[in-house]
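Consider this pair:
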Amino acid sequence: MNERSIALNRFGLGARPDEPDLASGSDAPRTWLLAQLDNYDPEPAPIRNAARTPAILSDLADYQAQGRAIKNSQPAGDRAVSGVTATMPDDFGPALELRRQARGSLRKHYVRAVNARVDAAVSTPTPFAERLVHFWSNHFAVSVEKISVSPLAGAFEFEAVRPHVMGKFSNMLKAVERHPAMLLYLDQASSIGPGSAFGQRPRVIARNRGLNENLAREILELHTLGVRTGYGQNDVVELARALTGWTVPGIGPRTSAVGMTGGFEFVPELHEPGARTVMRKTYPEEGQAQAEAVLEDLAQHPATARHIATKLARHFAGDTPAPAMVARLEHAFLRSGGDLPAVYRALISSREAWVAAPVKFRSPWEWSVAVLRALGSHLADAGSAVGLQEQLGQRVWRPGQPSGFDDMAATWAGSDALMRRVEAAERLAQRSGAVYAVSLAEKIFPGAVSVATLEALKRAESGGQALALLLVSPEMMRR
């Protein structure tokens, strides 16, 4: 594989037939990648037209209101019974229908956001930058199996991740932890300081509602320092106390701030008073700024630099990245104060990322985007994007755990997963019409198509079969 093909496929999202010629000059592929750091558009047209958090939260609040209305419609003796009972009042049916309609509105937000993400990935002129968006979105993962997160996952990526991909890590960290999708996913919106004004209410004490440690734990374990890096349970608890008050009005606890504000808000009534000590440093009581100060320090911690460097190196240079490359990215992170473009430049300059052999097995998401870019194709409708990812076994924004989707070959290279790709490739090839597979192979894998692949394409019984074979070739499966 030559450097042009590496730039297009390993660093990028796969080549398009109309990709610019990078062959002139030995530094051309690197120059092309570096230029994307300046030319990246955080809000391309597909993203610009997607729904934003305030509108989505309004629909989510409506869904929850309909749920309360249904609950209140049930006779007291039936409220603990799941489903519709024979004693439901006559007006229960309309209430249930409103609930279904509200849920449908939430589903539409998810479907449209997935389609926007696919459109942005397929059409982007800066595929390296777009790959970085997907990397960071998975690093700060939320998961849409939670009904309150499902409509917000796209807005989370579009609003909290994309604007900060070419900025400071600390700014991205604070943006993602404040976003309603993260606050709802990890139950921070319902966390109450036991010693706060709200937490001292008799009714709150009687319901045993209080501190939730989920967000604090994942910030330390996944988002910044990484596992086994010196923090303990007391650090988790102290950070959780500092984070109290970070909530989503209208969705979180019903304090005096009951109105919808359209997103994150710090509610002092929920905040645990007092100084907090995290990682042996004490932070004075400063309301919202207390947790922000902790995040700022975590963002610049040497363990965070090592954690981020390791994940980036693994993503671009193989499942077991070279220690020297990790150290180089770590040094760039620390030297620049977490300036992400400085880390990307160190990545591009690392010889370990430019070895000729393919180093990563493409995940279903990566494979589907590479295929669509190769075909110069867009999916027929919004539902097609969701359906394709579900068929391939990697539902968009649904990793099922806060650690995100795994970035190792063993997760995606099973026989069932490969058969799913074969079936999808056959359908996409049939839909693409007359495409000469040999010519396309040479365009999207310049100087990197094996003799075995070319021979297989030439021996195919039809043009459609040849194209399907190209889409599941070793060159397409790996980057």
User: Anything to note?
Assistant: Strands lie at 246-247, 265-266, 276-278, 281-283. Confidence is low (pLDDT under 50) at residues 79-88. The first strand starts at residue 246 and ends at 247. The radius of gyration is 25 Å.
